[in-house]
Amino acid sequence: MPGEAGAELERLDDDALGAVSGKGGIYLSGDFSINELGGPIENSYFGRCDDATRKCGARFAYRLKENGGWMVLDDIRGNFAFEGLTLGVRYIDSGFAGDGELFQKDVLELGLPNTVRFNDVQFKIAASNTARPTDPGFQQTDLFSVGMRGEVVMEGNLLVFPTGNP
Fold first, then answer.
1. What is the residue-wise DSSP string for 85-131?
2. Of the four listed, 36, 44, 64, 130, which is most buried by Cβ atoms within 10 Å?
3. What is the mean pLDDT of residues 37-61?
4. H-type helices in the chain, by residue range?
5. Is it the case that residue 2 has pLDDT exceeding 60?
6. Residue 102: per-residue pLDDT
7. Collapsing DSSP states into helix, strand and coil, what is residue 14?
8. What is the pTM for the complete model shown?
9. 69 near 127, Cβ under 8 Å?
10. Is the pLDDT assigned to residue 161 strictly greater than 90?
């Protein structure tokens, strides 16, 4: 019959498999909810989302420089979904205004998904003198609040360059 094709799978031994090259990577889709009701810790700072006297979202703190203050993403909560995030490794040996020729190493490449859907995502960007609200002398200044609902189109790749010598 015209248009029919047949194929048979054949086992490869180690030598034959060693001669095969390809491109690896991971394709991810996901739907994440962060602290819909509140986080796992309840104390004088964190609590359930229906308690207006407490923060109910996740917290991410990072120090901008050694012995400096902390930048904080605080009260993170909501739901976001995406399809088509890819993870792979890319060898950099050109580009970047000539720096790529000097680099000659692998980087982590995140292929951004086409569309990310946000549903009641919210967080605060703040400055803090300590990493944790339970640390002695804690003081935080909320700089601004972010709320997102809808779709965002993301295109391109994000390259993560290693630092130091492996």
1. EEEEEEEE-S-GGGHHHHH-EEEEEEEPPSEEEEEEEEEEEEEESSS
2. 130
3. 78
4. 14-18, 99-103
5. no
6. 86
7. helix
8. 0.57
9. yes
10. no
Say how far apart CA 139 and CA 127 lie, in whole Å.
Answer: 9
Residue 4: phi, psi to the nearest 5? -85, 145
Mean pLDDT of 143-150: 93
> Is 19 strand, coil or helix?
coil
Query: Which pLDDT score is estimated for 16?
Result: 80
Q: 153: which 2 tokens?
A: 């189109």
| HSE, side-chain direction, 13 A CA sphere, residue 150 | 4
Cα distances (angstroms) measured from residue 58 to each of 28, 43, 137, 140, 145: 23, 14, 21, 15, 14
Specify the pLDDT at position 166.
Answer: 52
Cα separation, 78 vs 159, whole angstroms: 27
How far apart are the C-alpha atoms of 33 and 80, rounded to whole Å?
Answer: 7
